[in-house]
Predict the 3D structure of the following.
Amino acid sequence: MKRIYTLVLSLAAFAASAGAQSMYDALTLSENNYNGTARSIALGNAMTAVGGDLGSLTLNPAGSSVAGYSQFTITPNISVSAITSTGVDGMGDEVSTRHTRFNLYNIGSVINVNTGNQFGIKNFSFGFVANSAANHLGEMFASGVNSNTSFMGEMAVLADGWASNILNDRYAYENARAPWRAILGYQAGMISTFGGNTDKYVGTTESVFDDGSIGLASDLNQEYGRLITGNKTDILLNFGMNISDILHLGANIGMVTTNYRCDSFIREAPVTPFIIRFDDNTETALTDARMRENLRWDANGIYAKFGFILTPGAGLRLGAAIQTPTAVTINERYQMDGYTHFTDGSCNAKSTSPENDFSYRLKSPYRFNAGLAWSVLGVLLVSADYEMCDYSTMDFRPAYDSDDRYMFIDTNHDIASYMGTAHAFRAGLEVKPIPAIALRVGYNYQTNPQKNADFEYVDSNRNSIALGLGYSSEGSFFADFALRRTTLPDEYVYPYPDYITNDAGQVTTYSPEILNTRSLWDVTCTLGWRF
């Protein structure tokens, strides 16, 4: 159980669920999990010193001048997310969920120009390539019986102190003085005042007992679901140069485009129906209640990348590249809705917030990667890469200089404190038993940049293994295939915050905690033509 271990991190996650920006948002928008062509995937993306493949250009722009010919590639992909969810403190059932999606991991072309020189600049290349840099995909579902807490109870605590006439105001969401979840809870019938109070609330799943305490009126059947989809794509304007077949130089202007969608819901229904009596003496029973949240990011950014590949001889290749920080502009849209159903349908209630549209900026960190490769007579290729990225340098900023420059000060402090450096290690092996066929295997290991409340790195890392097959005709056509399995870090999800505390503010009863064990399968095919 990780609740204490990741306490500070989980509190930031709750802020994100309410539409605020968190360090997790910055990481999601900044992190790269390279895809590209089927060949680069099959070699574990250990391509910094290899080059010659359009999937390698995201890693090292010098790779475009290695092949010595022009080419066009297109790479369709099928991704399958597999998540097993298990909860504690409610939602304790074990549920496995699969979600499949079609992607385009790569498309583009490089034009190679031969100068005819024997020495010096022998050829140079121009490229326009789009490579997938991250695939956001995952569907989860959790369910179970909760005897202790309710998301409507948490809403009631959140609403305490806010007058009911403010929460019920027609323009309550637009005025945004009160938390949106408190407004939704009151307008959708999930919370109500009690005992003659106008600013004290009880959840619709709760009862006020004779001693004044508040607790669940019945055990609750709870369900929580979430679907994440989206892609991060690097669109590259590439230039490469081959100097005497010894030194290859390259540069990219990279344009990053990200779309990210997160849809989630939580639903509760009493195990044992109980009578609710309203102020007008109407009696009914709760059937079920549901809250849903929708988050959308559309982001665009720009960066530069410079690299080289050195071929000193004996089949040896050395490569390195550095990428500048990325200036990203994000447009965020957030909306929530909810309903409460009763046995007396006249008591049903629902509410939908307006769509909050907010723009801001993010500075994503610089990256450095280096690689080593060894080729033997075109029959054997061994490659290895290292990449470093310091996520503590991420920084949120207002979209306009006239905006409040202090609005992100707490989030940026969290980033500096609880984010660190991620390291990636990649390796690949290619064997050609006959000239037309290539067999490949690759491995990728990436450390987690997040730190826990004790400022120690979280031991929850990402690794993948890939297998591949390549075919090269005597003419212009070639095709590559790759199968990759990625084991993603375990994820802890908190559908709603802890809210039951003692007089000292210490949590006495925990809200549900869900452990997601995650993996991602990729089946990828690249079709290419040389010219």
Notes: Residues 260 and 526 are 25 Å apart (CA to CA). The helical segments are 7-17, 23-30, 38-42, 151-159, 164-167, 172-175, 180-187, 409-418.
